[in-house]
Amino acid sequence: MEHIQDKIFYHIRVVTTKEIPFSLSKTYTFGKKLNNYYSFYESMSNQTIPQLANEYIRYAQEMIFEEMRQKDFPSLPSRKTCLWLIPNSENLSQALVFWFKQMYNPTMSSLKILKFSCTGNIHYANQKYLTLNINDVKLLREDAVKYWQGDNASCDNIDTEVLFEGTAKVIEIRDPFTINF
Predict the structure, then answer these.
(1) Mean per-residue pLDDT for 103-128?
(2) Most exposed residue of 1, 77, 89, 124, measured as fewest CB within 10 angstroms of its CB?
(3) Phi, psi of 121 (to 5 degrees)
(4) 107: helix, coil or strand?
(5) pLDDT for residue 179 is more than 70
(6) Is 27 helix (H, G, I), strand (E, B) or coil?
């Protein structure tokens, strides 16, 4: 875990009709309540049986990752309450494209790119360890340990995600389609 002060990061936000949008120049606190990703699991509805089955498998994976964090890495930010960020690196454009492709769904309301000035605690992790594996719980636990150890994670890897808890001030809001990738 690393403590940061006024460091710049980016976040791709799914804008829904259910939430209050972020406001420019406003400061927000993360790490105290369930984030939108985990809140989804509290009220999964309007899903087909195959979609529900996939989401429950993903939820079980998330629970194993959280169990391993609490057991072996309790000081790291939780995936349940964190804000996911993208490092401000020389590969930022490629990282934004990578994460946009991971998150984009044509049924979504819209996506926004937020630029934050962050103060708090971060953990760098490689999302490749989150590849859904339903065949072997032992391998899933091993992947969780690698994720929490930060294996193959660095600011320069486009598939590195940053888990953040602390305060973040919105300093820019952009439409992803206005950025020259």
Answers:
(1) 88
(2) 1
(3) -115, 140
(4) coil
(5) no
(6) strand
